[in-house]
């Protein structure tokens, strides 16, 4: 406004308006160009999700794995469900956890408890319906919790309509003809049939099952009720793309790709595997049916789909690959393809190297053996492995959680591990897990670690109000009376409260990068330093059999203040030349610099 109250145009002549107009248009175009360019460069170097101003969400949060059957039952049938999960979403805010991963909840005959999917885009009635899922996403978003879902592309259930169409396909003109991996096998002199080769399934004997309708064998990496899809068939790829889009359109934030190393087998099915290649999960001798190079092209293809969603709203989508038993080179290739391969090696530490501090140091170094832009991740438990308390002893649970949450990268916690839950003792019971049944070996059973979540000390540990029992019993183990959310919430030095404090601490910038310093070697105590300039922390964890003293001054620091301990002490000044730690004790010291 001018002094006289009349508007004084900034520029009066037409020519001048033109110039101003062009300057504005030019300026806007330049800003758009630079933004696009920066965004482009960023997504080339790492998947940090375009528009997010700092690191993407999945680099900043803990991932909490939920096994839906066992987390919370809402309708009293003794099996957990989606409504149950919705009712417990507050818990993740309380825990300081920003992302959940749901094991399968899709339509399934439940031969492998949902890892045998008969319809990828439906919710199994046992878990609820699609409205429940939509509500779950909505409620989770409103609480700032990201949702990652399981994606099981390697195989379907034999009750999938795709499998039915494939076994009934008359000839190659039918698009379903090669949807699965069929082979007529060989005919013996007596007229009987044999599979084409010696390939073995993870769960049971031969990986080939005869189908009397198709008059051919089909290949199954896992149960015979889990036929493998044929990823050399473009129709399969297209159908699976649609599945991914379906869930992305629903608003999921990421996928955990199940059993990905099994996606391809060599094309020539008459070549036998090397002698010694046996059944079982962690088998590296499988030269022809695991870790084939074709996998990475497919992962890239899926990454590209997720990227379109990422580009549309600027929020990154996480692609996490379940990579059990892969060599280092394959691990690199999963990264290059735009996924993050789970680093599982901390789980078998006990069998592999005794779970000593030296053993952990070696594994962590291996986990950190990455190149620029490859984001680390660590995991210490899941639905396929014994619980930490059972593997490592109760005494080490808190130190294990302390390690997991203070290592660089994205940590994954399996439900109940924050409480120090033990697995169920189901030795007196017929196993439910098909792996134990088909391999005829109760030791292979994964029932123990799938025991229901312990919420409180009431009926069924608060997991379910069923009066006829839960799918896996809470009994015979009575731990739930004291190892449960309700009791631990009110106990200052409980595993749960320690976990929450660790989860809060790791939100500091000091823990949000990939820096870690180790001493050359360790004794019984694992030590490392995390941090940024001016804000550094030493973590010390005693994995030995007895009390042990250590001197951290070798790392170049002399004094510090205790910020967290597996015992309840806090805020005391620590002399770093003489730290005494009990067996299973761990603590974090803020270093004076
Ligand atoms: C993955 C799952 C496991 C399942 C198998 C077959 O390894 O983690 O639970 O049995 O795939 O789908
Ligand atoms: Mg239920």
Task: Give a verbal description of the structure.
This protein is α/β, with parallel strands linked by helices and 593 residues long. Among the domains are: 58-154 and 237-268 and 287-505, TIM Barrel; 161-219, Oligo-1,6-glucosidase, domain 2 (Alpha-Beta Complex). 28% of the residues lie in helices and 15% in strands. It is built from 16 helices and 22 strands. It has helices at 14-45, 57-60, 82-87, 90-95, 130-142, 161-168, 234-249, 295-313, 328-336, 349-353, 357-367, 388-392, 397-406, 434-438, 485-489, 495-505; strands at residues 63-66, 99-102, 106-107, 119-123, 146-151, 182-183, 186-187, 193-194, 208-211, 216-219, 254-257, 318-321, 340-341, 377-379, 410-414, 525-532, 535-542, 548-550, 559-565, 573-575, 579-581, 586-591. The strands form six sheets. It has an eight-stranded parallel β-sheet. The protein has a five-stranded antiparallel β-sheet with strand order 16-17-22-19-20. A hairpin with a 7-residue loop joins strand 19 (559-565) and strand 20. Helix 7 (234-249) runs parallel beside helix 8 and helix 13 (397-406) runs parallel beside helix 16. It binds alpha-D-glucopyranose and magnesium ion. Alpha-D-glucopyranose binds next to loops.
């Amino acid at each position: 406004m001018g002094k006289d109250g009349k508007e004084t145009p900034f520029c009066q002549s037409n020519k001048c308006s033109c110039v101003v107009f062009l300057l504005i248009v030019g300026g806007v175009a330049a800003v758009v160009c630079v933004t696009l360019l920066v965004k482009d460069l960023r997504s080339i170097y790492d998947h940090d999700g375009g528009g997010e101003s700092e690191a993407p969400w999945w680099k900043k949060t803990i991932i909490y794995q939920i096994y839906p059957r066992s987390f919370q039952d809402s309708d009293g049938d003794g099996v957990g469900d989606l409504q149950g999960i919705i009712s417990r979403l507050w818990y993740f805010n309380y825990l300081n956890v920003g992302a959940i991963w749901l094991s399968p909840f899709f339509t399934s005959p439940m031969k492998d408890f949902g890892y045998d999917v008969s319809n990828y885009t439906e919710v199994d009635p046992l878990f609820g319906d699609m409205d429940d899922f939509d509500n779950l996403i909505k409620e989770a978003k409103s609480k700032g919790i990201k949702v990652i879902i399981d994606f099981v592309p390697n195989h379907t259930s034999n009750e999938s309509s795709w499998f039915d169409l494939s076994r009934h396909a008359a000839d190659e003109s039918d698009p379903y003809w090669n949807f699965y991996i069929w082979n007529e096998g060989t005919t013996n002199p007596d007229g009987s049939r044999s599979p084409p080769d010696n390939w073995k399934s993870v769960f049971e004997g031969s990986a080939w099952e005869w189908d009397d309708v198709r008059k051919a064998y089909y290949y199954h990496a896992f149960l015979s009720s889990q036929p493998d899809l044929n990823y050399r068939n473009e129709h399969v790829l297209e159908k699976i793309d649609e599945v991914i889009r379906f869930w992305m359109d629903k608003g999921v934030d990421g996928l955990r790709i199940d059993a990905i190393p099994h996606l391809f087998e060599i094309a020539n099915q008459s070549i036998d595997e090397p002698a010694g290649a046996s059944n079982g999960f962690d088998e590296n001798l499988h030269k022809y049916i695991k870790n084939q190079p074709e996998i990475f092209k497919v992962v890239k293809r899926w990454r590209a789909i997720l990227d379109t969603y990422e580009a549309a709203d600027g929020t990154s989508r996480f692609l996490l690959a379940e990579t059990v038993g892969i060599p280092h080179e394959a691990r690199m290739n999963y990264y290059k393809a735009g996924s993050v391969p789970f680093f599982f090696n901390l789980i078998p530490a006990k069998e592999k190297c005794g779970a000593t501090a030296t053993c952990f140091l070696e594994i962590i170094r291996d986990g950190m053996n990455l190149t620029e832009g490859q984001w680390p991740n660590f995991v210490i438990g899941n639905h396929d492995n014994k619980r930490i308390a059972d593997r490592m002893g109760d005494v080490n649970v808190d130190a294990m959680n302390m390690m997991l949450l203070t290592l660089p990268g994205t940590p994954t916690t399996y439900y109940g591990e924050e409480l120090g839950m033990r697995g169920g003792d189901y030795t007196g019971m017929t196993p439910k897990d098909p792996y134990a049944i088909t391999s005829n070996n109760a030791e292979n059973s994964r029932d123990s670690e799938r025991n229901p979540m312990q919420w409180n000390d009431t009926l069924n540990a608060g997991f379910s109000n069923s009066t006829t029992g839960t799918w896996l019993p809470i009994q015979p183990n009575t731990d739930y009376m004291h190892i449960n959310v309700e009791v631990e919430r009110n106990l200052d030095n409980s595993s749960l409260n320690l976990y929450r404090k660790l989860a809060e601490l790791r939100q500091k910038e000091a823990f949000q990068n990939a820096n870690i310093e180790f001493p050359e070697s360790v004794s019984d105590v694992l030590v490392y330093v995390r941090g940024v300039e001016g804000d550094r922390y030493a973590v010390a964890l005693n994995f030995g059999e007895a009390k042990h003293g250590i001197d951290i001054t070798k790392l170049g620091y002399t004094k510090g203040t205790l910020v967290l301990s597996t015992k309840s002490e806090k805020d005391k000044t620590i002399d770093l030349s003489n730290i005494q730690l009990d067996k299973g004790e761990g603590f974090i010291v803020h270093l004076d610099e």
